[in-house]
Specification:
By secondary structure, this protein is α+β, with helices and mostly antiparallel strands. Helices cover 29% and strands 39% of the residues. Strand 1 (2-6) and strand 2 form a beta hairpin. It is globular, with a radius of gyration of 12 Å.
């Protein structure tokens, strides 16, 4: 499932690895295009758990770049 939280934030949640990859790639494409139009910031992809991500324009990421971060620690 893909949900636009705002003009520059997309939330992605999926039940299967295939759906997650497809939806995450689509979200990154959309947000990267928006970031390029703005011409000031890059894109941050944040993993919240094994099946939930946020893709957002971020002022801490340099223009033209995409960075990833994790906000969770998987348990063994």
């Amino acid at each position: 499932m893909t949900k636009m939280s705002s003009a520059s934030v997309v939330e992605v949640t999926a039940d299967t690895p295939e759906a997650l990859e497809r939806d995450l790639n689509a979200a990154v494409d959309v947000v990267c295009r928006q970031a390029m139009q703005m011409g000031r910031h890059g894109v941050m992809v944040t993993r919240h758990n094994y099946a939930s991500f946020t893709v957002a324009i971020s002022e801490v990421v340099p223009y033209g770049q995409t960075q990833e971060r994790q906000q969770w620690q998987p348990t063994s």
